[in-house]
Design a protein that fits this description.
3-stranded antiparallel beta sheet, 3 helices
């Protein structure tokens, strides 16, 4: 079976944590920030883990991880 190519779009958006889980950046922090509270904007700046149900699909997109 040939090697799997990395999905470049996914590789730019996802990264692996030290424990082997997949982290992603939160959405909704690009524009229209005036109406969002400072607390909400701070939280959106943090990364979060990909849900366990989706992580198997994400690993297929980035096989080198």
């Amino acid at each position: 079976m040939p090697k799997l190519k990395t999905h470049r779009g996914a590789a730019k958006r996802l990264r692996l944590t030290g424990t082997g889980k997949i982290a992603r950046v939160r959405a909704f922090k690009r524009h229209k920030l005036g109406k969002k509270t400072a607390k909400r904007k701070r939280r959106l700046g943090q990364s979060t883990l990909v849900h366990r149900a989706d992580s198997k699909r994400m690993r297929r997109l980035i096989p080198h991880m």
